[in-house]
Structure formats: C-alpha cells, structure tokens
Design brief:
alpha+beta
Length: 110
C-alpha cells in the first residue's frame, strides 16, 4: 500500500514517540511506538534501509524505543512482524501463543 505524505505526517504526529537514524541527510532507520505509558505499548513500522540491514541499525532503533522514559512503567510491549521474527526473538521478544492477532479492514476515502 502506497502511503500519502499527508497521512504519514498525521501518523507520525499521533505516535507517542518516533526514533530515526540518519547517515548525514539520508534516513536509514526508523521506528515508532504508541503507548498509554501505564500498561502497554505497541512498536510499529520498524524499517531499516536495505543497504544498512545487518549493521545493527534495527537493534539501535529497538533499544532506543525500549529505553524511552514514557515506557519505563509499562509491563508489556507488543509488536507484529511478518519477516523478522528471529531478529525480535534475539531482542528479547517472545511469541505469544495465548493471544490472537485480529484485523478488521476498514475502507477509507482519502
């Protein structure tokens, strides 16, 4: 799905925190989180430029997110991944078999 710039701006402004990694003026790594700062947080959209994958950038993004002050009193951080399960297992996440990911597709007009 191609995202529109105005929607990306809205998405970022509604995130609790955003972490970005830059090489000079090039964005090479990115992640964001939403949280209630009391019980739960969800990590979204962790992306690393293909040229930099395997160099530790994803680890830095996750560590920076987990280290955020607003996450220090919560007891669970959720995330969903399609292709990076092994990476997140190495970062200390575990597969949760007692919960089910559910999705409701909503048609929207841009």
């Amino acid at each position: 799905e191609k995202r529109k710039l105005k929607n990306i701006r809205k998405m970022l402004s509604n995130s609790s925190s955003v972490v970005s990694i830059w090489d000079n003026q090039d964005l090479i790594g990115f992640g964001r989180v939403t949280t209630d700062s009391t019980y739960r947080a969800v990590i979204w959209d962790v992306v690393v430029d293909k040229k930099y994958q395997g160099s530790g950038i994803g680890t830095i993004v996750i560590e920076e997110i987990i280290g955020l002050k607003k996450l220090q009193n919560i007891n669970k951080i959720y995330l969903m991944t399609t292709n990076q399960t092994e990476f997140y297992l190495q970062m200390g996440f575990k597969i949760e078999h007692n919960q089910t990911l559910m999705i409701k597709e909503i048609s929207k007009i841009d």
